[in-house]
């Protein structure tokens, strides 16, 4: 600020054919002087060059100044991102499923195309997922990113149809003791979201991870409601991160 020092910076990361993620940082002494606006416009130009539709910035939900700035630049709220942590010593009771519902591992079901269809059906309308772009999440892509079929779960309803799914990503065996296992959020198809499936599915996945070793479990979630996050908190998960996604349409 007192010469040729850095007064602001912006980073742009293409995520999908429809969306770029970005971050803007401005030195406190240079805020409200047009630096953030110039960086925002430069990011929008970069998104247009990539040929994508949306510029997305995630900020802490309680960062009022950042939220007001994004609104002033034409960004609009699109969804929430959450991270919760379960201590390594937390008790994990057996899941209680609503009548007629049950979970099976992908290793047992042995139907990766069905699992991919479920991911697209459960996450397509929840902002922040690759599944927001039809056709992007394929069997080939899932096979590359799937950690262990025994740690991926499908939920089946009373009529035998698959209605939910979640994946896990265990910590490496040689990772530090405080390195967490990761539980990718339970996804439920819209017509069954009111059936009470999120909590038992999270417990099913968490109990499988616990069998691999007593580590903290990090549950990551995109686009879910605060009510669903509150359900996870009743299981012993504590909220450690809450950001909101604001989006600026660029065109295409």
What topology emerges from the helices and strands here?
Elements: E1 8-16, E2 19-26, H1 35-50, E3 54-60, H2 64-72, E4 76-86, E5 102-105, H3 106-109, H4 112-123, H5 139-145, E6 153-156, E7 162-166, E8 168-169, E9 181-184, E10 187-188, H6 198-210, E11 217-222, H7 226-234, E12 238-249
Parallel strand pairs: 2-3, 9-11
Antiparallel strand pairs: 1-2, 3-12, 4-11, 4-12, 5-6, 6-7, 7-10, 8-9
Tell me briefly what this model is.
By secondary structure, the protein is of the alpha+beta class. The chain has 7 helices and 12 strands. The longest helix has 16 residues, at 35-50.
Description:
With 252 residues, the protein is of the alpha+beta class. It is 28% helix and 29% strand. The chain has helices spanning 35-50, 64-72, 106-109, 112-123, 139-145, 198-210, 226-234, and strands at residues 8-16, 19-26, 54-60, 76-86, 102-105, 153-156, 162-166, 168-169, 181-184, 187-188, 217-222, 238-249. An eight-stranded mixed β-sheet has the order 1-2-3-12-4-11-9-8. A hairpin with a 2-residue loop joins strand 1 (8-16) and strand 2 (19-26). The longest helix has 16 residues, at 35-50. It is globular and about 60 Å long. The two termini are 37 Å apart. The model has no long low-confidence stretch (mean pLDDT 94).
């Amino acid at each position: 600020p007192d010469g040729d020092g850095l007064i602001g910076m912006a980073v742009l990361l293409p995520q999908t054919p429809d969306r770029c993620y970005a971050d803007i940082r401005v030195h406190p002494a240079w805020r409200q002087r047009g630096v953030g606006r110039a960086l925002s416009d430069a990011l929008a130009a970069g998104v247009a060059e990539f040929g994508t539709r949306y510029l997305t910035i995630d900020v802490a939900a309680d960062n009022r100044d950042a939220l007001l700035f994004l609104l002033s630049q034409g960004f609009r709220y699109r969804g929430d991102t959450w991270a919760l942590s379960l201590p390594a010593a937390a008790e994990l009771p057996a899941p209680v499923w609503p009548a007629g519902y049950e979970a099976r591992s992908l290793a047992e079901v042995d139907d990766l195309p069905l699992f991919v269809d479920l991911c697209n059906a459960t996450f397509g309308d929840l902002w922040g997922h690759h599944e927001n772009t039809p056709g992007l999440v394929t069997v080939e892509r899932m096979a590359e990113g799937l950690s262990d079929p025994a740690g991926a779960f499908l939920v089946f309803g009373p009529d035998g149809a698959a209605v939910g799914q979640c994946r896990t990503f265990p910590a490496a065996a040689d990772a530090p003791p405080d390195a967490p296992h990761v539980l990718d959020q339970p996804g439920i198809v819209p017509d069954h979201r009111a059936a009470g499936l999120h909590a038992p599915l999270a417990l099913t996945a968490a109990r499988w991870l616990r069998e691999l070793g007593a580590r903290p479990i990090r549950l990551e979630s995109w686009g879910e409601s605060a009510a669903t996050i509150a359900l996870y908190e009743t299981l012993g998960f504590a909220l450690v991160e809450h950001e909101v996604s604001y989006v600026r349409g660029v065109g295409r």
